[in-house]
Amino acid sequence: MGDHDDLRKFIIDLAVVHGRVVLSSGREADWYVDLRRVTLHHQAAPLVGRVLLDLTADWEYDAVGGLTLGADPVALSMLHAASATDRSLDAFVVRKAGKAHGLQRRIEGPDVAGRRVLAVEDTSTTGGSVLTAVEALREAGAEVVGVAVIVDRGAGDAVEAAGLPYRAAYTLADLGLVA
């Protein structure tokens, strides 16, 4: 099995939780994909980085990140996976709101102004979180080349309607789930 198949197995085994839940979008579901159980797992996290780097290999970008908290471990996994191949890739964190103290930055990490960046998220249903990050990145002067997620729960249309390419490593069907 390769990285893509190995990561899919981790997602199915560790992250898919059955039972009634309310998603961040406000929608209800009979199951939840808790990807932090994967993105923060010692064996799965490196796979996340390699799979998403492979998924976006034809896009040119030199920094990756998104809205905290879902994007943070994804971006760091990609940073470390890129470093293992001698590729220079920075990571950044987009706050939900600007800080009222210190440097009052909304985007933490290396400056993104004038840079080609990739917005990421662990999973997305409506695209709301990642599009909030995209808006902040554009306001900071970054050129967002696209959006990539580990698992798509249906956000593709909203992201593409915002004029961005969208890719997901896995669909719900790939995980044996129905929308």
From TrEMBL:
Record-linked SUPFAM superfamilies: PRTase-like
Highest taxon above the source species: Bacteria
Keywords per UniProt: Glycosyltransferase, Magnesium, Pyrimidine biosynthesis, Transferase
Keyword match Magnesium: yes
This enzyme's EC code(s): 2.4.2.10
Reaction(s) catalysed by this chain's protein: orotidine 5'-phosphate + diphosphate = orotate + 5-phospho-alpha-D-ribose 1-diphosphate
Pathway: Pyrimidine metabolism; UMP biosynthesis via de novo pathway; UMP from orotate: step 1/2
Enzyme class, spelled out: transferase
Binding site for 5-phospho-alpha-D-ribose 1-diphosphate: R95, K96, K99, H101, E121, D122, T123, S124, T125, T126, G127, G128, S129
One GO BP annotation of this record: pyrimidine nucleobase biosynthetic process
Residues the record lists as binding orotate: T125, R153
Function summary: Catalyzes the transfer of a ribosyl phosphate group from 5-phosphoribose 1-diphosphate to orotate, leading to the formation of orotidine monophosphate (OMP).
Subunit structure, as described in the record: Homodimer.
Stored PANTHER family: OROTATE PHOSPHORIBOSYLTRANSFERASE, URIDINE 5'-MONOPHOSPHATE SYNTHASE
Name of this chain's protein: Orotate phosphoribosyltransferase
